[in-house]
From TrEMBL:
Stated name of the protein: Glutamyl-Q tRNA(Asp) synthetase
Motif ('KMSKS' region) on chain: 237-241
Keyword Cytoplasm in annotation: no
Residue ranges of domain Glutamyl/glutaminyl-tRNA synthetase class Ib catalytic in the record: 4-243
InterPro entries the record matches: Glu-Q_tRNA(Asp)_Synthase (IPR022380), Glu/Gln-tRNA-synth (IPR000924), Glu/Gln-tRNA-synth_Ib_cat-dom (IPR020058), GluQ/Sye (IPR049940), Rossmann-like_a/b/a_fold (IPR014729)
Organism (species): Caballeronia pedi
Entry GO MF terms: ATP binding; glutamate-tRNA ligase activity; zinc ion binding
Gene: gluQ
Keywords (A to Z) from UniProt: Aminoacyl-tRNA synthetase, ATP-binding, Ligase, Metal-binding, Nucleotide-binding, Protein biosynthesis, Zinc
């Protein structure tokens, strides 16, 4: 096996202690397997992209001793690949236009919740737009047993999600015309021949959708490992929205040691090189071949 891993930050702000944990875990997993580690800038969501943030993230990673083994991939340059995948799915009849507004979906969810205790998109536009203009494009998920997607997460253990009752038909192209994260990530992982995805546990919930989409597109499913997210003092996931502080580039070793501790790896290191040797060895013991 040729191990290929990736770190896929969204350039919505500078790296913080939470995103460093995901970067470090993916980097250590690639090193522990003697594989490649590739950075992908997930700037498909242009309204959320902050100018300069991507370059800042790449510079911070380099400063912390993490260098992409190949030129970084930019989602903003991959529109043709997403369009080609979308067309393939369109030919299979698996996707359909949806005319529901956010408001209508929210209203129907409350309604549905009362009756079936489900929060999934109720499939209102599956059989037609009911005279409404098309907004988003959704992928039809299977019904019944086929809707249950299972996988074994290398950190979190066995997982299952019922796409029909827990998610519903999900958007591949958004109402604002942008490609949805789920489509972009699956097409990018497949085109880069990614074998191992290591990322934050906030994305555990997206994984079944991604596996189903891989099956629809006939591309391989990588191995998944989701590391615990870092929370702030109020128990919210660290993010720009919850006011996470940018990493201090003057103290990379302190931040790295702290990130490793979050991954249950305790090392005392006096240099960045020593830090990576010690943590890679520890990681390999737990997750290596
Ligand atoms: N861009 C996503 C994020 O920053 C990560 C996507 C992924 O690793 O699949 O949360």
């Amino acid at each position: 096996m040729t191990y290929r891993g990736r770190f896929a930050p969204s350039p919505t702000g500078p790296l913080h202690a939470g995103s460093l944990v995901s970067a470090l875990a993916s980097f250590l997993d690639a090193r522990a397997h003697g594989g490649s580690w590739i950075v992908r800038i997930e700037d498909v969501d242009t309204p959320r992209t902050v100018p300069g943030a991507a370059d800042d993230i790449l510079a911070t990673l380099a400063h912390f001793g993490m260098h992409s083994d190949e030129p970084p991939v930019w989602q903003s340059e991959r529109g043709a690949a997403y369009a080609a995948a979308f067309e393939r799915l369109q030919q299979t009849g698996l996707i359909y236009p949806c005319g529901c507004t956010r408001r209508e979906i929210a209203d129907s969810l409350i309604h549905t919740h009362a009756r079936h205790a489900t929060l999934a998109y109720p499939g209102t536009c599956r059989d037609g737009l009911h005279g409404k203009p098309a907004r988003a494009w959704r992928l039809r998920v299977p019904d019944g047993d086929a809707a249950r997607i299972g996988f074994v997460d290398r950190w979190q253990g066995p997982q299952t999600q019922d796409l029909a009752t827990e998610v519903g038909d999900f958007a591949l192209k958004r109402a604002d015309g942008l490609w949805a994260y789920q489509l972009a990530v699956v097409v990018d992982d497949a085109d880069a021949a990614i074998t191992h995805v290591v990322r934050g546990a906030d994305l555990l919930d997206s994984t079944a959708r991604q596996i189903y989409l891989q099956q629809c597109l006939g591309v391989p499913t990588p191995a998944y490992l989701h590391v615990p997210v870092v929370n702030n003092a109020s128990g919210e996931k660290l993010s720009k929205q919850t006011g996470a502080a940018p990493l201090d580039r003057n103290a990379p070793l302190d931040a790295l040691v702290e990130a490793a501790r979050h991954l249950d790896i305790d090392v005392a290191a006096h240099s960045i090189d020593a830090f990576y040797s010690a943590t890679t060895a520890e990681w390999a013991k737990r997750f290596g071949r």
